[in-house]
Sequence to fold (143 residues):
Amino acid sequence: MSYSKILIAVDSSEYSMNAAKKGLELSHQLNAKVALLYVIDTSKALGNIDAGITAEEALIILKKEAEQTLDELAAMYNGTSIMKFIPEGLPSKDIIKTAEIWEADLIILGTHGRTGLLHLLVGSVAEHIIRHSKTPVMVVPSR
Fold:
């Protein structure tokens, strides 16, 4: 199968940056269109009233972090154009939804390498996407 549209899902973690680099390299090799996706996890946009930070302010901070991350990655990509998506919601659902809407041929993402009890309790976004996505998924391992 040829991949002409590659969606690279990222966050600000080291694992994610590694996956983005691999995804950008692959898109160059395949001469594919590429889009970067950073889902603002609304479950993490919690305010801290004691510190004087509202939920809305926390969301603004998360949006700025997402924009900076995508700008950094886009600067590494010296192709003709790069799309950037920054939806708000839940990563596992919004990655799949964006891939379908943009009609991606491949989703690339990293994994945080959770194991044991932490994996059991928290789960894995990558695992959820692999199980539920109609679009093929490439998971770049944490090491």
